[in-house]
Amino acid sequence: MRGYTHSTAPNRRFPDLVIQRLVKAALAGAPAPYTAGELAELAAHCTKQEDAANKVERQVAKSAAAMLFSSRIGARFEGIVTGAADKGTWVRVLDPPVEGRVVEGAAGLDVGDRARVQLVRTDVERGFIDFRRVS
After folding, report:
1. pTM for this one?
2. What angle do CA 8, 11, 14 make, to 5 degrees?
3. Of the candidates 70, 46, 66, 47, which has an alpha carbon nearest to the alpha carbon of residue 58?
4. How far is Cα 49 from Cα 108, in angstroms, rounded to an integer?
5. Measuring CA to CA, which residue among 128, 65, 74 is closest to residue 98?
6. What radius of gyration, in Å, describes the C-alpha atoms of the chain?
């Protein structure tokens, strides 16, 4: 009998290999192929790699949204404020569901508020979508 554990994401293939080696050794009654210290190092490495992959995925999604919106400069949308802090106010428009920063007229907006916004700028490379609040 062989032990097999599998995760579908490509960035999980190395952790799958580590688990398979551990299971194989356990089933064979052999010593573990890694020390506790080595497993801690492997776990830290895998976490770092997964974080990097997630960052790339987020950037691709943001750039794709900016590209989708790049031909709609001047269009108006209904949205909901999803973030409001010193560093900026963010709104998610509903059709299509895309988030961007309110760069003009954000004063007084708070999370959960509905807002009508107009698309003023996109930056595909950086994944930026900028709105202005309109009445």
Report:
1. 0.69
2. 95
3. 66
4. 40
5. 65
6. 23
